[in-house]
Design brief:
The complex is a heterodimer. By secondary structure, chain A is an alpha/beta fold. Chain A contains 11 helices and 14 strands. In chain A, the strands form 3 sheets. Chain A has a 6-stranded mixed beta sheet with strand order 6-7-8-3-9-10, with helices on both faces. In chain A, strands 2-1-4-5 form a 4-stranded antiparallel beta sheet. Chain B has one domain. Chain B is globular. Classes of the chains: A alpha/beta, B mainly alpha.
Chain lengths: 319, 259
């Protein structure tokens, strides 16, 4: 069995909260996860779910209360692990008075690249993130979107095998988001592993081989987006139009919504034929019948709703 | 030997020299040195003494202001603005980052002190049209000021590893003032009858850095020779003290959960 790109076991992080009577608030609760080599892995969850905490622990920005994690077989405590990873922090911010080129040069130096290699890399990656013309501009003059691109460039500058991106699309316009998606696809084609956190579900559905959903610090599910939401049809959508002055059947009148000159109604799968019969008997013209499957978004909201019913971690843990 | 602290130091220096606040301080210090010419002109016969005295004091005070105010914000700013995140994701150990930051600020202070020294030399030359052999002592005094600044910077970094810039400033100033009067603290112990008090005063005075050792401004302005033994003793003392403070700072910083 090959070494997984990322292996997280029982990762837990408690934060002390309060000044006079500090209590522990559990931000991450026994997270166990395995990401295979070459995967694009989406880490989903609402704000405060523990996504950024997980990434900070993996980057050794904060230390776990318990649990372990390995990247390409190397412990996260091992500084050599950092040679093989790239990291884009959430809403990245860099040194105001440096130019984008100087910043990337600085980071390239930290990896020990020689001068000629450094210059070539910096130019290549500035071009790759669409900042070839802004390389000599000080970073304090950069927009949020431009900073995000610089952040992306510094994360992949050293050709890492595993790239961690914390909300890479946040703050970007549609063009910027598309460019980031293209970069992630490109990295996948190069055989790299991309682990990215997001709360933009459409991005995850579009990009990821697999996703994990985290709510309240706890892992709620892992799998391919299609597996997670399942292929089961939960309702049928009927689009129809009535005759001029024609009435709707009583059973559908309440649930039908008018869109222009047409009506739309959702009915359970087992009631489809009876609904169609009623529409036919009142002279309605059926335009389309579409099976409705749950989206990743539906799954996501269902998990959040379920999580609200269980005690919150900060109540459950005390010092 | 890791090259990382050197890389971080050069980056810190580059960032610092582009900050306009720094230039305001240098200009202000040069103005102070310039003003000493005016004071020197009304001090008949002792104009050189006044200029050297005021000039070295200005270099020391402005260096101290820079060391404390930039020093306490150096790591804190990186944590607040989260610029540290992308650095720590690289193969950089926290102690390497901290030592690099220290080196960068020290380099900045050395360059600024160099500019101010040139200002002082220009002021001296303006009033006497010559440099004397004894003026070499001024360079020793400036070297001692730099040693003092290295120690202050190390303390500023140390405190900023676990407290806010405001508190770090107060703590560093406190250490500086207490360290300047460490010999007097020992003296307080000797006038009390309590052996416990005497012991406490002695321990505190030995623990505190003795900043007065670095102050030879008066000797420099009088052209007194400085024994070589004092130069190496002060160098060794500052190096050892800085190393200890940086080790303590690194161990706190390495174990800390960043925001």
């Amino acid at each position: 069995m090959s070494t997984p790109a990322i292996e997280i076991e029982g990762l837990t992080k408690d934060y002390p909260v309060g000044f006079w009577r500090p209590r522990l608030r559990r931000s991450l609760d026994h997270l166990t996860l395995r990401v295979e080599d070459g995967e694009i892995f989406g880490f989903l969850g609402p704000n405060g779910a523990g996504k950024t905490t997980t990434l900070k622990v993996l980057m050794s920005i904060i230390y776990p209360t318990s649990g372990t994690a390995r990247v390409r077989g190397k412990s996260i405590d091992d500084v050599r692990m950092h040679r093989e990873i790239g990291y884009l922090p959430e809403q990245p911010y860099f040194y105001d008075y440096l130019t984008a080129r100087e910043l990337l040069e600085y980071y390239a130096r930290l990896f020990g690249f020689r001068a000629a290699d450094r210059r070539e890399r910096v130019t290549r990656f500035l071009e790759r993130v669409g900042l070839a013309d802004a390389g000599d501009l000080q970073l304090r003059k950069f927009s949020k979107g431009m900073l995000q691109r610089v952040g992306m460039a510094q994360a992949i500058l050293h050709d890492p095998q595993v790239i961690f991106l914390d909300e890479p699309m946040s703050g970007l316009d549609p063009v910027g988001r598309r460019e980031v998606r293209d970069i992630i696809h490109h990295l996948k084609r190069e055989g790299r592993t991309v682990f990215f956190s997001t709360h933009i579900l459409s991005d995850a559905e579009m990009l990821c081989d697999r996703v994990a959903v985290l709510v309240g610090g706890k892992l709620q599910g892992v799998g391919a987006p299609a597996e997670i939401v399942s292929m089961q049809v939960h309702a049928m959508e009927i689009l129809f139009e009535t005759q001029v002055g024609g009435a709707l059947p009583n059973s559908l009148a309440k649930s039908a919504t008018q869109i222009g000159g047409r009506y739309r109604v959702e009915v359970p799968e087992q009631q489809l034929y009876s609904a169609l019969e009623e529409l036919r008997s009142c002279g309605a013209r059926i335009l389309s019948v579409t099976p409705l499957r749950p989206t990743l978004e539906d799954y996501f909201f269902k998990l959040i709703a379920r999580n609200k019913a269980v005690p919150q971690p900060e109540q459950a843990v005390s010092r | 030997m890791s090259a990382i602290p050197g890389i971080v130091a050069i980056n810190t220096f580059r960032e610092a020299v582009r900050d306009r606040v720094l230039y305001n301080l240098i200009v202000f210090a040069l103005m102070m040195i310039g003003a000493s010419i005016l004071v020197g002109e009304i001090s008949i016969g002792i104009d050189r003494l006044v200029i050297i005295n005021l000039g070295l004091s200005a270099i020391s005070i402005f260096g101290l202001v820079m060391a404390i105010f930039i020093g306490v914000g150096l790591v804190y700013k990186e944590m607040e603005k989260r610029t540290l995140y992308s650095v720590l994701a690289k193969p950089v150990r926290r102690w390497e980052f901290l030592v690099g930051k220290f080196g960068g600020l020290l380099l900045t202070l050395a360059v600024n002190t160099g500019f101010m020294t040139l200002g002082l030399a220009a002021a001296l030359f303006y009033v006497s049209r010559e440099f004397l052999r004894t003026d070499a002592t001024i360079l020793v005094a400036i070297y001692f000021i730099l040693l003092e600044l290295a120690l202050v910077t190390a303390f500023a970094l140390f405190f900023s590893c676990f407290s806010s810039p405001m508190l770090s400033t107060l703590f560093t100033l406190g250490i500086y003032v207490a360290g300047f009067f460490s010999a007097d603290i020992r003296g307080i112990g000797t006038v009390t009858r309590s052996p416990a008090m005497q012991m406490t005063a002695r321990v505190i005075s030995y623990l505190l850095p003795n900043f007065r050792n670095f102050n030879i401004i008066s000797a420099a302005s009088h052209g007194d020779a400085i024994p070589f033994s004092l130069i190496w003793q002060n160098t060794a003392y500052a190096a050892l003290y800085v190393a200890l403070v940086l080790i303590a700072a690194s161990s706190i910083f390495s174990g800390r959960n960043l925001k």
